[in-house]
Each structure stands twice: as structure tokens, then as C-alpha cells.
Design goal:
The complex is a heterodimer of chains A (308) and B (655).
Chain A lengths: L4 H28 L10 H55 L6 H22 L20 E4 L2 E4 L7 E4 L1 E4 L4 H6 L1 E2 L7 E2 L1 H13 L5 H58 L3 H27 L2 H4 L2
Antiparallel strand pairs in A: 1-2, 3-4, 5-6
Helix pairs in contact in A: 1-7, 2-3, 2-6, 3-5, 5-6
Chain B lengths: L3 H26 L9 E7 L3 E3 L2 E3 L3 E8 L3 H28 L9 H17 L4 H60 L7 H17 L2 E5 L5 E5 L3 E5 L2 E2 L1 E6 L7 E6 L5 E3 L1 H4 L3 H37 L16 E2 L4 E4 L15 E5 L10 E5 L7 E5 L4 E5 L3 E3 L2 E5 L9 E5 L9 E2 L13 E5 L8 E7 L10 E6 L5 E7 L5 E8 L16 E6 L7 E6 L2 H4 L4 H7 L12 H41 L3 H38 L1
Antiparallel strand pairs in B: 1-4, 2-3, 5-6, 6-7, 7-8, 9-10, 10-11, 12-21, 13-20, 14-19, 15-16, 15-20, 16-17, 18-19, 22-28, 23-27, 24-25, 24-28, 25-26
Helix pairs in contact in B: 1-11, 2-5, 2-7, 2-10, 3-4, 3-9, 3-10, 4-5, 4-7, 7-10
The chains are: A mainly alpha (308), B alpha+beta (655).
């Protein structure tokens, strides 16, 4: 078969260009560290990497939502702890008030201290988080959710809890009505008891002069029972927020672990195996080198050189 | 016998070898000329002269100069070239397309994710102006990316059109040159010898033409070649060339089509009939790949934008008066279009008589396709809708809803024989923009809020409350749900503002199922429960109190829920994007392998052709020596003849 000289040149040049292009592609992959730079490099891997990227950006959002929930829940938990301490203080004062040697003036001053504690408790119940949200505001409240009213402290928000979505619902607030106004009445099972009503009544009864020892004893015993019931309700809620915190931590760990796994999946889909890539690059390099050498040797040979 | 025959023979041999040397030099000179066919001198032995002793040879004659040419191999090479040209031009365009479907952080998918995920922050801090600003900025990014993708696709279309213009101009020039060459070849036909170099020149012109458009040929008696394209349409006939032109596509004027000008208005040539060449590659890319890419991007834009707009309309904004202002659309999208075919019936001023209007009704049911609406040829008066992506055909009437779009015939209705190209999503990404300027216009709050009764004994809670229809159909109405047994049976009552019962009914709740069970709609909500309800437990779904409106994040959560919802034809937005990306990737990949294969076939065909027609310089070097030696030998014959003559003269003079 005849080999047309012009075609040989063209074909060799095309071959050289192909080798050079392959080398350039290997270099591009090496410098970017990615095996899949375009979807056509490996469509299935590109789609997998894309899904992984989507999961990663979702993980970031989930972590931010969990952080917001954790901040609110921590604040609720510590507020409930402080509220428990205030109630404990009120309980000790009330036990003291039962002392038979106390006179009206002594009881009145104790009553005033308890009234002050009640004010502190209300302030705790109306605490706001760093975003200005009332943490005991339930499903939302634009003013203090627990407000003094004609019939005692009323709940001004919407019952329930606000949540944010972090894979699972994560609370942003606590139901203030259930925490502060719905302890079990020890005297009337099934009836709700407001911690503020309890303290209001104890304080006002202690500040009432001229009561008999028996009346004072009744105030103390009823008050203690009711304060204990309120404390129990608060500590139930404190336990519940504690559990929420644990769950948020677990969720957060889970999201981080998922993000880590997803990062690995993304890397497996689109990243370059450096060892193999370098070896590929070297083999392409020697291929190109060989093509250049043979080109120069073969093209130098011509019968004209021998006819002298 | 005299010496003159010897001398004549020497002269003829010298002339013949000189001719061979001349031809060899011509070959060497033209070794690198594209399309040149190697030439050789055909020598024949001159008829001998008879004598009593037999025939005495009379030397050699030059019969003809022929070119080494194989019509079959040349045709093969031209055909392979046409296919390679088609695949190469399509691949070039596909690679431009791939630049629009970028993976990773700079892609459309990531912008969509970033926007949807920013809604998680809005759900955490619905009143925070900074968070709202970030959400709006992400929405702006999303709209920009889609808008840019739309205009990049427009640029690709513009590139295709100008590429077609340039190529068609080249084809016209080549066709004219072939016609002229035909004329010259026919004129030289009378000389009785082939006009080798002209034939080569014409072959080369045809070969260049084949790269742009696949040709077939028939040789006429006068040696001229008739060139046909597109399955029998003549391009060159003898000394006449037909003019090709680029016209606007009859179905969609923004696309280009190839037409032929042979007296009268340009007649369009079907893309499928072209068979090969870069023009066919460009047209195929334009009519299939680019349309598919446009509908893929457009469907994503229309479905994601549509779902967000719809959910946004169901929520309540932070604008004053607080709690009264329902959300408005967040995204503006490009229009759904119904384009009348150029051949539709027209009135006196040239406007189409009949019209069709297209309205998108359900963004999640949209398909990544265009549709053709035409009268059923078998059943006049009945209209057929063909989904062009998969060829599915169905009969439609005015007002029908197909794939999330409603088709309404205008007044006057489409005329018999009319055709329309329906583009529900093709231009959706173009000009996508955010419509909200004030962060307070984001509807993070839900108009309704669900709460559990204070005296509930079960653990039932509200997992989620999503608005499924526009809010406030019954202002101030609330819905009370009372569980009547421990296995999920409940009664519901819709109450007006004064707690009077408007309607009531009962149902049965199963874990994982919403209340109310679809398709029942109580007040535009869908409630998901957690926990276990007990007999007598109460749930109310009431208008969100004004005091709780600012901090309510119900609609932000519903918007966030679109991340997982099947908003794009049964898939989530991110899945649909990954799939679109992979689809384009696969197309580029297969386009690349087609181009590689057809290039290899073309190289092989060219190798076979050049094996017959090409010049090998080593061969020519050998021939040069061969003919040089023959020439020298012939000269020696002349010298001998001369010396014989001298000998004769001397003998005569000496005697």
C-alpha cells in the first residue's frame, strides 16, 4: 500500500496533538485535584457529587438551626433552674413563718420577701433570648407572655412551642402556660395551679395581721404543698428541657457525622486519586515524548537523502 | 535500412521519458496540495514496421497523462468527512452548553440549595431583619443564576445562527465554484484528454463542501457533475448552482432553518434529510440538544420558582397592618408561550387569525418539553397535542389541563390546518428576577396556628401545620378537632368568629396521615400530628393571634419544606438538578465519542483515498532516477545513431 507523504505528515501531526491534549487534560486534573471537572467527565459521579454538595449545604443550615434551638433551650433550662432556687427560697421562708414565736410584723416582712421572690419569678418567666423572643412565649407573643391581670397572672401568648426545622423539629420556645400556670393542684387533682397565685396568696396571707396560729399553720401547710407541687412541675419541665438539650446534642453529632460521610462521598465521586493521576500523567508524558522522538526520526528519512 | 528510424526512435524515447520526468516533477511539486491526485504518463509501444524478417519495433509513444483516482474511495472519504463534520460541530456546541450546566458551588443547583437553606435561618429568627435580608439576597442570587443561564442559552442560539450564516455563505461560494469548474471541464471535454488538474480541483471543492453538507453526485455525459443535498435536492446542476439561505424557523422564529432559493420564496429543507455535514450538526444541536437544555433549565426555574411563589402567597408578611398582608410572588418568571406556525391562516394584515393561550396551573406537574398542537389530520375539528420530548400524542380541547398547563383556544379559535408550538417552560429562566424589595415582604408567618387543648390527656402534639391553599378563605374561622376514641376517630367543626358552627363532620386519623384527609379542605391547612391522641383530646386550628404573628415561623417552615417536596415533576429540586446535570453530561460524553469515532472513520477513509491518489516522495524519487536513466539511455541511442551516420559518411567520403 502506498503511503502518501503529505498524509503521513498530517496524521503524525494529528497524533502529536492528541497526545499533547491528553497530557494537558492530565495536568488540568492534577492541578485542580478533581477527577470530575465537567459533568461529561463522568455524569454519574457528577450527579452523585452534586447530591452530596446539596446535602452538605443542608447540613450547614441544620447546624445553624440546631444552634438556635440549643441557645433558646439552654436559656430555658437555666431559667427553670433559677426558678427552682427561688421557689426553694420561698419554701424555706414559709417554713420559717410557721415559727410560733413570730409576730405579725415578722410574718409580714417574710410575706414581703416572698412577694419580691414572686416578682423575680415573673421576670424569669418573661425572659427573652438574644433574638428578642420570649422563651416561655409558646407559639409566639409580641409582649411579655405572662402578665398580671385582674384574676392573677394570665398567659398572653399562644400555647404550644415554636419550633425550627433541623431535620427534626427543634424547639425555639417553651410553653409558658404549662410551665407556670399548670402545676397539679395537690388539693384538687386535675385542677391547674398557678405558681404566681400560690405565692400571691402566701404573701398576702402572711402580710394579713391578726391571724390565729391555726390560720397561720394552715397557710404554711397549704402553701408548702402548693409550692412543692409547683416545684415538681418546674423540675419536670427542667428535666424535659434537659432532655431536649441532650437530643439536640445528639442531633448535632448526627448531622456532623452525616456531613463528614457526605464529604467523603463527594470526594470519592469527584476527587482525584493522586497516586494514580501522577502515574497516568507520567505515562502520558512518556507517550508524548516517544511520539515526538519517533516523529523526528521517521520524518527525517527520505530517499532523496540517499541519492547523491 | 537507414539510420533515421534509429534516430527517430531515440528522439521519441527521449520525449517519452522527458514527459515522464515532467509528470514526476509535477507530482513532487504538488505533493502537499490538498486534493491533488498523483499523475502518471501512459506509455505505449509504437506499432512495429513489417519487413521480410518480421516486425521491427518503432519505439515508444506517449498516450495520455492520467491521474490515480478511485471514484468510490473519493466518495467514501467525502461521506465520512460529512459525518465527522456533523459530529464535530455538534460537539463544539454541546461543550458550550455544558458550561451552562456547571457542577459545584457555581452551579444552578447550589444557588437553589443556598436559597432554600437560608429559610432555615428565617424559621429560627423570623423577626430578624438581617436574616430576612440574607434570604432576599439568596433569592436574588438564585434568580440571577437562572437568568444568566437563560441568556447564556440565548447566546448559544445566536452562535448557532451566525455559525449557520457563515457556513451557508461558504457552501454557496463552493457550489458556485463547482458550477464554474463543471463548465470549464465540459468545455475541455472536446480535447479528448482528461483535464486532470481541473478534475482534482473540483474534487477538492466537493470534499470541502462535504464537510458542511453531505452530498451525492451523478456524472453527466459532458463530464460535469450534478451535486445533490438533503435527499435529492440539487445544489449544482451543470454550470448552475442553487442558492442556499438561512431563514427563521417556521415553528419558532428565534431558531434558524436552512432553505433553498430556487425561484419563488425560500423553501425550507428538513434537518433530518441533510444526513451529515456541519450544517446538519448545528441544526440538530439547535433543534434537539438546545431545546432540551432550555426546557430542562426552564422547567427547574418554573417549578422551583412556582412552588416558592405559591407557598409565599399562602403566608403572612411582616408588613403593616401586621397579620393582614398575605405574601406576594417572590420570583418573576419568563412567560409561557404559544407560537403560531408561520403557515397558519392569516388575515389581510398578515396576523394569524386563530390563537391559543397557555397558562401554567401546577408548577410541579410541568414537563421539560415543548408541545406541538395541530389539527388531527384524520379527524378535522379535533386537536392533537404532541409532547415533543417523547412523542406522546393526545387529543385536547380548549380548557384542558395537560402536564400542569391549561390550553385555552382564543377568539377566534385556531383555524383548520393551523399549528402551534407550545413552550410552557422554554423561556421561564430568561429574565427570572426577584419581585420583593423589602425584607418584611417575606411571608414567614402562617395565617393559622394549631394548638392542643389545655386538658388533653394524650400526648398528641402538632408536628407541622402547612397551608395548602391560599389563606383566609373564611376570615376568623377556626377549626376544632375533638378525638372521640382512642384509635384516632375524631369530629371536626368549623367555627366562625362568634364560635357558631359553620360545618362539621368526622374522620379517622392514622399515624403519618394529615388532618383533614385529602381532598377534604377545612380551611386551607394540612395538619400533621405527633404523639398519641386520647378520647376527649382537643386540637384547634385558629387564626394566628395578632400578638403571635411577628414571631410565627409557620410559613418559613413550609417554605423550607420545599427542599424535600416533589416540586419538579415528582422529584425534589436538588434531585431534578443533579439529573439535568447528568443528562447534559451524558449527551456531551456521547457527542464526544461519536465525534471521535466519525473522525477516526474519516481519517481511515482519507488514508485509503490517499493510498491511491496521494504522492509518496520516496516513490517519486525512485521514478525520477528511473526516468532519468531511461532518458540517458535514449540519448545514448541518439548518440549511437549519430555515430552510425558519421561512420557511413566517413566510409562514403574515404571511398
Amino acid at each position: 500500500m502506498r503511503i502518501a507523504t503529505a498524509h503521513t505528515f498530517d496524521a503524525s501531526l494529528a497524533q502529536l496533538q492528541r497526545r499533547q491534549k491528553a497530557l494537558g487534560e492530565a495536568q488540568e486534573q492534577l492541578t485542580s485535584g478533581k477527577r470530575v471537572l465537567r459533568a461529561s467527565d463522568d455524569p454519574a459521579a457528577a450527579a452523585a457529587a452534586e447530591r452530596a454538595l446539596s446535602t452538605l449545604s443542608r447540613s450547614d443550615a441544620q447546624q445553624r438551626a440546631l444552634d438556635a434551638s440549643r441557645a433558646a433551650t439552654q436559656l430555658a433550662e437555666s431559667s427553670l433552674g433559677e426558678a427552682g432556687a427561688l421557689l426553694q427560697q420561698a419554701r424555706e421562708l414559709l417554713v420559717g413563718a410557721g415559727n410560733g414565736s413570730y409576730n405579725d410584723a415578722d410574718r409580714s416582712s417574710l410575706g414581703q420577701v416572698i412577694a419580691g421572690l414572686r416578682g423575680d419569678l415573673l421576670a424569669l418567666a418573661n425572659r427573652r433570648d438574644s433574638d428578642g423572643r420570649y422563651i416561655f412565649g409558646g407559639q409566639g407573643s409580641d409582649g411579655p407572655p405572662l402578665q398580671d391581670g385582674p384574676g392573677g397572672v394570665g398567659f398572653n401568648g399562644t400555647p404550644g412551642q415554636a419550633t425550627t426545622a433541623a431535620g427534626a423539629a427543634a424547639p425555639l420556645s417553651v410553653d409558658g402556660r404549662a410551665v407556670w400556670l399548670r402545676a397539679d393542684d395537690p388539693a384538687l387533682p386535675g385542677q391547674a395551679l398557678s405558681v404566681f397565685d400560690v405565692m400571691d396568696r402566701v404573701a398576702s396571707e402572711l402580710m394579713t395581721p391578726g391571724r390565729s396560729q391555726a390560720e397561720v399553720a394552715a397557710t404554711v401547710s397549704r402553701g408548702l404543698a402548693e409550692i412543692d407541687a409547683s416545684s415538681a412541675n418546674l423540675s419536670t419541665w427542667r428535666t424535659r428541657t434537659g432532655e431536649t438539650l441532650n437530643r439536640l446534642d445528639a442531633l448535632s453529632d448526627q448531622v456532623s457525622q452525616e456531613a463528614l460521610d457526605t464529604r467523603e462521598a463527594r470526594s470519592a465521586a469527584e476527587d482525584l486519586d493522586m497516586v494514580q493521576a501522577i502515574s497516568d500523567f507520567q505515562s502520558r508524558q512518556s507517550g508524548y515524548d516517544a511520539a515526538l522522538k519517533t516523529y523526528s526520526i521517521v520524518q527525517r528519512m527520505s530517499l532523496f537523502d540517499y541519492l547523491r | 535500412m537507414g539510420t533515421s528510424p534509429l534516430m527517430a526512435m531515440g528522439i521519441k524515447a527521449m520525449a517519452a521519458n522527458y514527459a515522464a520526468l515532467q509528470t514526476t516533477s509535477h507530482n513532487i511539486a504538488n505533493a502537499n496540495v490538498a486534493g491533488y491526485s498523483r499523475q502518471q504518463v501512459q506509455l505505449a509501444t509504437a506499432q512495429g514496421q513489417f519487413s521480410g524478417a518480421g516486425f521491427f519495433g518503432r519505439g515508444v509513444d506517449v498516450v495520455a497523462v492520467t491521474r490515480s483516482h478511485d471514484a468510490f474511495l473519493t466518495g467514501e472519504a467525502a461521506g465520512a468527512r460529512a459525518l465527522a463534520g456533523m459530529d464535530a460541530s455538534r460537539l463544539e456546541q454541546l461543550q458550550r452548553l455544558e458550561g451552562i450546566f456547571r457542577p459545584g458551588e457555581s452551579g444552578l443547583g447550589h444557588a437553589t440549595d443556598a436559597f432554600l437553606n437560608s429559610l432555615a435561618d428565617l424559621a429560627s429568627r423570623p423577626t430578624d431583619g438581617a436574616v430576612r435580608q440574607v434570604v432576599l439576597a439568596r433569592a436574588g442570587d438564585l434568580a440571577d443564576r437562572y437568568g444568566q443561564a437563560g441568556s447564556a442559552l440565548d447566546e448559544v442560539q445566536a452562535g448557532v445562527s451566525s455559525g449557520l450564516q457563515a457556513t451557508v455563505a461558504q457552501v454557496n461560494t463552493l457550489a458556485r465554484s463547482i458550477a464554474e469548474t463543471n463548465q470549464r471541464i465540459a468545455a475541455l471535454r472536446g480535447l479528448g484528454q482528461p483535464a486532470n488538474d481541473l478534475l482534482d480541483q473540483r474534487e477538492q471543492l466537493i470534499s470541502e463542501l462535504s464537510q458542511h453538507v453531505k452530498t451525492s453526485r451523478i456524472e453527466a455525459d459532458d463530464g460535469s457533475l450534478a451535486i445533490f443535498i438533503g435527499g435529492g435536492q440539487s445544489l449544482v446542476l451543470g454550470a448552475e448552482a442553487v442558492h442556499l439561505t438561512v431563514v427563521a424557523d417556521a415553528a419558532d422564529p428565534s431558531r434558524s432553518a436552512l432553505a433553498i432559493e430556487a425561484g419563488g420564496p425560500p423553501r425550507p429543507l428538513a434537518q433530518d434529510a441533510l444526513g451529515g455535514g456541519s450544517i446538519a450538526g448545528l441544526l440538530r444541536f439547535q433543534n434537539q440538544d438546545l431545546v432540551d437544555a432550555r426546557t430542562l433549565v426552564g422547567r427547574l426555574a418554573a417549578a422551583v420558582g412556582g412552588a416558592i411563589n405559591e407557598q409565599q402567597r399562602r403566608g403572612v408578611t411582616l408588613q403593616p397592618p401586621l397579620g393582614q398582608v398575605a405574601g406576594g410572588d417572590l420570583f418573576a418568571l419568563g412567560p409561557a408561550r404559544a407560537l403560531p406556525h408561520a403557515g397558519n391562516a392569516r388575515d389581510g394584515s398578515g396576523n394569524p387569525i386563530g390563537s391559543v393561550a397557555l397558562t401554567l396551573t401546577d408548577s410541579s406537574a410541568l414537563q421539560a418539553s415543548e408541545y406541538e398542537l395541530r389539527e388531527d389530520p384524520a379527524l378535522p375539528g379535533s386537536w392533537q397535542l404532541t409532547r415533543l420530548r417523547d412523542g406522546q400524542v393526545q387529543t385536547v380541547a380548549s380548557g384542558d389541563v395537560v402536564d400542569g398547563m391549561r390550553i385555552d383556544f382564543g377568539a377566534p379559535a385556531p383555524q383548520p390546518g393551523d399549528r402551534f408550538l407550545l413552550q410552557p417552560v422554554t423561556r421561564a429562566a430568561n429574565g427570572m428576577a426577584t419581585l420583593l424589595g423589602d425584607p418584611d415582604e417575606l411571608a414567614a408567618a402562617s395565617p393559622l396556628v394549631a394548638s392542643t387543648g389545655p386538658a388533653n390527656t394524650g400526648s398528641v402534639g402538632v408536628a407541622s401545620l402547612a397551608m395548602t391553599a391560599a389563606p383566609l378563605p373564611l376570615p376568623d374561622a377556626s377549626v376544632r378537632i375533638t378525638f372521640t376514641d382512642d384509635s384516632g376517630g375524631y369530629t371536626w367543626e368549623v367555627l366562625d368568629a362568634g364560635n357558631a358552627t359553620l360545618s362539621s363532620g368526622s374522620g379517622n386519623w392514622q399515624p403519618g396521615q394529615p388532618i383533614p384527609a385529602p381532598p377534604l379542605d377545612l380551611n386551607g391547612f394540612s395538619l400533621q400530628l405527633s404523639g398519641v391522641p386520647r378520647t376527649g383530646d382537643l386540637l384547634t386550628v385558629a387564626p394566628t393571634p395578632a400578638a403571635a404573628m411577628a414571631g410565627n415561623n409557620g410559613n418559613a417552615l413550609a417554605l423550607l419544606g420545599l427542599r424535600d417536596a416533589a416540586v419538579v415533576g415528582g422529584r425534589s429540586a436538588s434531585d431534578a438538578w443533579s439529573q439535568a446535570l447528568a443528562e447534559v453530561g451524558v449527551r456531551v460524553q456521547s457527542g464526544r465519542s461519536s465525534a471521535e469515532i466519525s473522525q477516526a472513520v474519516a481519517s481511515q477513509a482519507e488514508l485509503s483515498r490517499s493510498a491511491v491518489s496521494g504522492v509518496n516522495l520516496d516513490e517519486e524519487a525512485a521514478r525520477l532516477i528511473q526516468f532519468q536513466q531511461s532518458y540517458q539511455a535514449a540519448a545514448k541511442v541518439l548518440q549511437v545513431a549519430q555515430s552510425l551516420f558519421d561512420t557511413l559518411l566517413e566510409a562514403a567520403g574515404g571511398g
